[in-house]
Amino acid sequence: MTLFTTILAFLCSLGPLIIFHELGHYTVARLCGVKVLRFSLGFGKVIWSRRFGADQTEWVISILPLGGYVRMLDDRDPGTRALSEADQAREYTRKSVWQRIAIVAAGPVANFLLAIAVFGGLYMVGMDEIGTRVRGMEASTPAYQAGLRGGDRIVAVNGAPVATYAELRWETLKAVLDKGGVRFDVAQQGGARYSATLPPAALAGKNVEGDLLGELGISTFLSPVTIGKIPDPAGPAGRAGMQPGDRVLSIDGQAVPDGAALMKLVGQSCGRTLQFVIERGGRSLSLTVTPELNKATNISRINAQIISSPEMVKVTLGPLDAIAAGAATTWQQSVMSLKMIGKMVTGQVSLANLTGVVTIADYAGKTARLGPIEFLSFIAVVSVSLGVMNLLPIPVLDGGLLLYYSLEVLTGRPLPGRIVELAQYAGMALLVMLMGLALFNDVNRLTQPAPTPPANTYIRCPND
């Protein structure tokens, strides 16, 4: 069932994005007076086709649903050459260079417009997101040394307001990529305000590919610990007499403010008996719990569900503000994608970050199981990525064609056919290599062992 959900979610996410992209090309081509012969979802063998409209455009579904194309009258292709005088006026290469630029650019632009519409719609409906209140941090972390304190709420990063943890991470990531410092504007619970500044030196060498905020010592505020389900009555929690709904107050005399603190204390026990103080029905009780150690994973546990949720905020905007926020989010993600690509090209970021259809399918399935809001957010993100990818100046992509036409605008004449042909071969080879690398990264990511969880986040026994 999980595999079926993943495949269905992948098709339901990528399919509409491809259709929307190709509809951009199709619509502008028709507006420019170009005759469209075929609109295809997918490549390869045609498995369904119908003809519609005055031009009897063929609408088809092909066997490989990993892209699509719009075939127009084009004298460069013997199979689509304009034969009649009427058709010659509607042939693609006879249109002005600006019309050809508009037709090619319409595909990526359609993806950006779709992302703006989806993001904007989500902001209008309202999205529950993790807030910017931070939990307590170690004194050795850069954030603590800069003056940030647990329980306070970050309200701006370098002057840019932030209301959600995602915005906080985004603005911090931008500052790190720009090799600048970070100034956090912070609000305390009583209303007082202060600033905590991290200089560029404190950010140097931080991993932009992983948990950047975690490396700085920043993590989201969590609610006090409540015990959820106890799956095995014979497990440590069950034997000790724990019950669902118990609130954990302390362990061995140390206060337990949230789930992360509980996991750290249990992880450090390595099977040693612990004294839990819990609250049940308004009374405090003391329970003796001996965590069990899984020798295969070196992780200890009490075998109970730990409920400790992040603080959530609901972001709801009016129509105009929502569309503006959607446009801003789309722009930010596009810029960040280009920066990441640039850093991969220059070697500043590992090529292991390049992902392909397998990872897209995996995340499509995961977000679909989380709910419609998460799934639609994922679709918008992929739409932005699809638009950015197609604008890269690689022959055979839209960006490659835009590069040709830009040179035509500058020189006043089209590039020689032989140069275009050689560029197409080189572009195809590069694209195949990138797809192969992305597939390798996808498979490697899914098959490699899970990374060792950090002791301050998961229940883990340190090695002797």
UniProtKB/TrEMBL annotation:
Instruction: Look up and give the membrane topology term.
Output: Multi-pass membrane protein
Q: Which CDD domains would you find in this protein's record? A: cpPDZ_EcRseP-like, S2P-M50_PDZ_RseP-like
User: Mind listing the UniProt keywords for this protein, alphabetically?
Assistant: Hydrolase, Membrane, Metal-binding, Metalloprotease, Protease, Transmembrane, Transmembrane helix, Zinc
Under InterPro entries, the record lists:
PDZ, PDZ_6, PDZ_sf, Pept_M50_Zn, Peptidase_M50
The residue ranges crossing the membrane are 101-125, 375-397, 422-440
Q: What class of enzyme is it?
A: hydrolase
Question: Required co-factor?
Answer: Zn(2+)
What SMART domains does the record tag this protein with? Answer: PDZ
PDZ domain: from which residue to which, for each copy?
121-162
Recall the GO molecular function terms of this protein's record: metallopeptidase activity
Q: Which domain of life is it from?
A: Bacteria
Fetch the Pfam families from UniProt.
PDZ_6, Peptidase_M50
Localized where?
Membrane
State its Enzyme Commission number(s): 3.4.24.-
- Database matches in PANTHER family: MEMBRANE METALLOPROTEASE ARASP2, CHLOROPLASTIC-RELATED, REGULATOR OF SIGMA-E PROTEASE RSEP
* NCBIfam families per record: RIP metalloprotease RseP (TIGR00054)
Its family?
Belongs to the peptidase M50B family.
Q: What is this protein called?
A: Zinc metalloprotease
Q: Which organism is it from?
A: Massilia rubra
Name of the encoding gene: rseP
